[in-house]
Design brief:
Length: about 325
């Protein structure tokens, strides 16, 4: 039996979530809610779905099992809460909401209703990242003593002088909420809970809504590992590098291209050898030229979510993870 899904969002919901959900065989996307535009009309025609401009009307009229949301974080809480209260499973974008209080309410409501709930943290779905996790778990570089993360690029909004929510901290934007939410999740994915942190935030004049653009952070994990993380969304040179330094070697996960999920290299360095690791896993989805490259990573999450909806098999990242990231965001901002 197929799981019926509706999408909310005329940006990433349209060009990211819609293709991802539509590609999963046991899922049927019936409708999407978003702004009128020629591009939206094209997507609706391509996928053969109905379009709404009122999300509440869509959730009331369509007989659906789940909803996937990609809206401004400030407004995600109201939609997700309404869906859960009406026994509709929720796939949400990050950050979960704009504060810990509302994130906690959603997490508790999902648990109370016993409904599937997932967050779109895509990086751990990348094959090279999954291979890195295996190497760490196998103690191939020994106990990890410290980790260095460097992620820099020029964001679309800064590059094009766009005054959008993505640079507005009150709506869930700013580099800490919008981008570093990914970092918080994948740091704990690799190394376990963060014990404490020190954070320095800086802003660029290019950030038209005054949201932070540079983050420098020092971390201590529960297992004793130390971390140094630098994120800069106002740099023309793109790099995303994670270096795991262990007692018997190091592991380097690095992407020097302008692609978000593609072109990561994984290098293992020990006393005996230095080698480039090829992941055994691969994506279950092949993007065509019209697809956003992130779709293939999202498909992996969607498959888990739909399996949860159909067979009651819980998965992660879930709303508990979304809440945990929101708590870390608030700690850093404070």
């Amino acid at each position: 039996m197929s799981t019926t899904v509706a999408i909310i969002g005329s940006g990433f919901g349209m060009y990211g979530l819609l293709p991802a959900f539509s590609s999963v065989k046991s899922c049927v996307v019936v409708s999407i809610c978003g702004k009128n535009s020629p591009r939206m009309e094209m997507y609706c025609k391509k996928f053969g779905i109905k379009r709404y401009t009122d999300w509440k009307k869509m959730l009331q009229e369509e007989d659906i099992d789940a909803v996937a949301i990609a809206v401004i974080p400030k407004y995600q809480y109201e939609i997700a809460k309404y869906a859960l209260e009406n026994n509709i499973a929720v796939f949400a974008e990050k950050p979960m909401t704009i504060d810990v209080e509302t994130s906690l309410k959603l997490s508790e409501l999902a648990k109370e209703k016993k409904l599937p709930n997932m967050m779109d943290f895509i990086f751990p779905e990348i094959p090279e990242w999954q291979e890195a996790k295996k190497i760490i778990q196998n103690d191939s570089i020994g106990k990890i003593t410290n980790i260095d993360v460097k992620w820099q690029f020029l964001s679309y909004d800064l590059k094009n002088s766009i005054q959008s929510w993505k640079t507005d901290t009150e709506k869930g934007g700013g580099a800490l909420s919008f981008y570093f939410s990914h970092v918080f999740y994948y740091l704990e994915y690799f190394l376990g809970k963060i014990k404490n942190l020190e954070c320095n935030l800086q802003k660029s004049e290019k950030s038209l809504n005054n949201g932070e653009t540079t983050i420098d952070m020092k971390l201590v994990f529960d297992n004793g590992c130390l971390g140094n993380v630098s994120l800069n969304i106002n740099d023309n040179h793109q790099i995303h590098s994670i270096k795991f330094n262990g007692t018997s070697g190091k592991l380097i996960l690095e992407n020097n291209s302008d692609q978000i999920v593609d072109n990561f290299d994984l290098n293992l360095v020990t006393n005996e050898k230095e080698e480039k690791i090829r992941p055994n896993l691969s994506y279950n989805y092949e993007c065509d030229d019209s697809d956003d490259p992130r779709v293939k990573a999202i498909v992996s999450l969607v498959e888990k979510f739909i399996r949860w909806c159909a067979n009651d098999v819980p998965s992660r990242p879930n709303f508990q993870d979304g809440l945990r990231v929101q708590q870390l965001i608030e700690s850093a901002r404070n």
